[in-house]
Amino acid sequence: MPSTDARIxxxxxxxxxxxxxxxxxxxxxxxxxxxxxxxxxKWGFPHFEHHGVLCxxxxxxxxCAFGFWKGALVLEGMADPEADAMGQFGRIMAIEDLPPVRTxxxxxxxxxxxxxxxxxxxxxxxxxxxPARVPADLADALRANKKxxxxxxxxxxxxxxxxxxxxxxxxxxxTRKRRIATAVAWxxxxxxxxxxxxx
Length: 199
Known about the structure:
elongated, alpha+beta, Aspartate Aminotransferase, domain 1, four-stranded antiparallel β-sheet
């Protein structure tokens, strides 16, 4: 007998009519492929756990979503349409939008095996940010204050970027000039842009 959670029964019953058979189908495949799976609700939608989070499903007004916690490892190179919808399978509106049962079950088994082996989730790869390009008016103001210039030059790239972005976001010329004056004063004191919130 599969281990089910009554909250997921309610979640499915309260979903849009088109979503209910979809969610029941996903749930059945997950239980079939991983009989020891445990159900729970996290962040307001159903999750399946086996030695850690395995996968999750969710229903929205016009589509459903299904995804694996370690999606990049489970699907090995499959295009990941997460930009279109949560999970790895895009906007699911019918059972036909999912892989066949055998394929989906294979993914569930692979996810379970990864969790059993304690394999960590792959960290998303992020392109390094480019160094901040200091606008001419800020550069001139810093050169006029040797202490501020020395401190700014020693700042980390992220600290520099915070000041540069704050200044270039100013919509009016007076605001920009005021921010530059404030920035130079704070920098001369060794303060980061968000020094008020630093502990």
